[in-house]
Design a protein that fits this description.
Layout: H1 6-30, H2 37-58, H3 65-87, E1 110-111, E2 114-115, H4 116-138
Antiparallel strand pairs: 1-2
Helix pairs in contact: 1-2, 1-4, 2-3, 3-4
Length: about 140
């Protein structure tokens, strides 16, 4: 059985961020789905992750996972809030997307039957955990 090294963890974190970034660009630009306000905030955390983690791998800076943890935690917090709105756990009167722009909670938030906020939360969580693992492995 192969053990996950810090470099491999960082590589998988980067691939996850890259795939997520390209996926939301596809959803918005090719499928024509306008992102809601909370989706924009999540993009603000995900897009830099793909760049920063990729550059860390390129330059072999194994400490770049620190920045991955910080950005992933911020993105996961926004995604968790978005998921709570989508699930109806947060009252409608405090939803940020109702004033202008697309809704944060309608059927446009589904891709292949899965809520976009859930996919974003899973991606941010995976990136954060892998970034933390990459730091732990480099300190040994």
């Amino acid at each position: 059985m192969t053990r996950l090294t810090g470099e491999m963890a960082l590589g998988v974190a980067w691939l996850t961020a890259l795939f997520a970034s390209l996926s939301v660009l596809f959803i918005g630009e090719v499928l024509g789905q306008t992102p809601c306000l909370l989706c924009w905030y999540q993009r603000a955390f995900m897009f830099p992750l793909a760049i920063i983690l990729g550059l860390g791998l390129w330059w072999q800076d194994w400490r770049v996972g620190r920045y991955g943890i910080a950005l992933a935690a911020g993105g996961a917090a926004v995604a968790a809030w978005h998921l709570a709105l989508y699930s109806g756990l947060v009252p409608e009167r405090i939803q940020p997307c109702t004033a202008t722009g697309p809704s944060c909670t309608d059927d446009n938030q589904l891709v292949l039957g899965i809520p976009i906020p859930l996919m974003a939360f899973a991606a941010f969580t995976l990136i954060g955990l892998l970034s933390a693992l990459s730091i732990k492995e480099t300190q040994k």
